[in-house]
Amino acid sequence: QVQLAESGGGLAQPGGSLRLSCVASGSIFRINDMAWYRQTPGKQRELVASITSGGNTNYADSVKGRFTISRDNAKNTVYLQMNSLKPEDSAVYYCNADGLEVQGADFASWGQGTQVTVSS
Asked: Going by DSSP bridges, is the β-strand pair 114-118/10-12 parallel, antiparallel, or unpaired?
C-alpha cells in the first residue's frame, strides 16, 4: 500500500501565503503524477494543480499565477506554494498520487486532507 500524508494547512490572511507538503510512503516503485485537489462543503472535489514525474505542470484557471506546484522525486514529496491567498481558496486540500507499487500493482492514493482557511 501507498500512503500520503499532507501538512502545512492552517489559517492565513487574505493576500498571505501558505505552503502545503505531501509525502508518499509505502511500497513505492514509481510515482507518476502527483496533484493537489480541494473541496468545500456541498461541492465536488476539484483539481488545483498537477505535476508529472518529468515536471510538467497544470493549474486550475482560478489559481494560475498565484499557486506553484513542485515535487522532490528523491523524497517522494509534492509541494503547493500558495501566494496571494483569497477567501475563496478556503477548502480542505487533498494530495493525490498514482504510480506503480514494488509488487507490480498500480496505485492511486489520496491523503487525509488538510484544512486551509483564508480569513481576516
From this structure: parallel
Q: Is 106 exposed, middle or buried (0-12, 13-18, 19+ CB in 10 A)?
A: exposed
Nearest CA to 108 out of 119, 118, 95, 117 is that of 95
CA dihedral 21→26→29→33, nearest 10 degrees, is -30
| pLDDT one-digit tens code per residue, 32-89 | 999 999 999 999 999 999 999 999 999 999 999 999 999 999 999 999 999 999 999 9
Query: What is the DSSP code (8-state) at residue 27?
Result: S
Alpha-carbon span 57 to 34, nearest angstrom? 10
AA letter at 46: E
